[in-house]
Amino acid sequence: MKHRPAFWLFCTLIGTHAALPVISEEVKIESSGLTLNANLEAAQEQWQDGPVLLLTHGTLAHNGMEIISTLQSIFAEQGLSSLAMNLSLGLDDRHGMYDCAVPHTHRHTDALDEISVWLDWLKAQGVKQVVLAGHSRGGDQTAWFAAERPDPAVKGVLLVAPMTWSETYATSDYQKRFKSELAPVLKRAEDLVAAGKSAAWMEDTGFIYCPGAKVQAQAFVSYHAPEGRLDTPTLLPRIKVPVLVFAGTEDDVVPDVAERVGPLADGAKIRLQVIDGADHYFRDLYADDLAEHAKAFIESL
User: Fold this and answer.
1) Which of 8, 15, 47, 120 is the 20 to 30 A CA-CA neighbour of 234?
2) pLDDT digit string (tens) for 175-216?
3) Residues 6 or more apart from 157 whose CB is under 8 A from it?
4) In angstroms, rounded to a whole number, what is the distance separating the alpha carbons of residues 239 and 173?
């Protein structure tokens, strides 16, 4: 993916905490004809000395959502710098939640390219130690990237309530959510892609969380076709650097993280931290617990 390193920084000094200067900057870069943006929370002036966390948010969300902004703040207090991207989802300079009414051209795997773009940006700033981190679907995208695009700068991976997947659950969830069968809709999308019409529009279609969406065939296939790599636990053994997975006991969005990751966890290369009482978003004091374990993990790398 080609992109140019020119960027704009909107820099606001927001004070000090725990004797550390914290600088919050919005960073923008151009990639593949789109402006991408991310929020940099620098824990100190020489933040490039690292390590720096590169954060990816969840489905149709954004870097200002509570779990991402809270973790960035806590990490900065701990002396850890972080860069939280807004996945473009095919839109220029996107901010905030993706509006379901906006036509969908984005694919699940587009995130891997954008993680790569921001990793390259960090390395261009002189960062040599990066910890990839992702929440929910962003956890799967982060793990997928780490498994298939290893980079010497990446020293570890943090996955917070990462997405799990099974064909049986995906089929039943689609039926429950949209009151229609997935199979005929998916076949139509796959037939369009096979016929070279990947960009063809499908109108009034149930898509991810969005009823009545307008979605390109290739986008529908990317999110809804059977694909084992949508199941984060299957990716973990393929990641060469240490991985720490967080699971909340009250998570009703991805409730089987601990059950699925537990048998894989060896306490060294793959680690599992279950936080009692935490839901999918690790609100309030649970975010502090998560950040403390994350800091210890990063210091151990």
Assistant:
1) 120
2) 999 999 999 999 999 999 999 999 999 999 999 999 999 999
3) 131, 132, 133, 142, 143, 146, 239, 241, 242, 243, 244
4) 29
- For 87, 101, 185, 265, the CA distances from 206, given in Å and listed in that order, are 21, 12, 9, 36
H/E stretch holding 106: none
Amino acid making up residue 70:
T
pLDDT tens digits, one per residue of 119-131:
999 999 999 999 9
Distance between CA atoms of residues 83 and 86, nearest Å: 10
Q: What is the pLDDT of residue 13?
A: 37
pTM attached to this predicted model: 0.93
How far apart, in whole angstroms, are the C-alpha atoms of residue 43 and residue 63?
A: 18
* Cα–Cα dist 254/245, whole Å: 13
pLDDT at 11 over 60: no
Contact present, 7 and 121 (Cβ < 8 Å): yes
Question: Which residues lie closer than 8 Å to 194 by C-beta, 6 or more apart?
Answer: none
Judging by beta carbons within 10 Å of its beta carbon (0-12, 13-18, 19+), is residue 89 exposed, middle or buried?
buried
Exposure letters 210-222 (e unless 16+ CB within 10 A, then b): beebbbbbbbbbb
Cα separation of 231 and 192, whole Å? 25
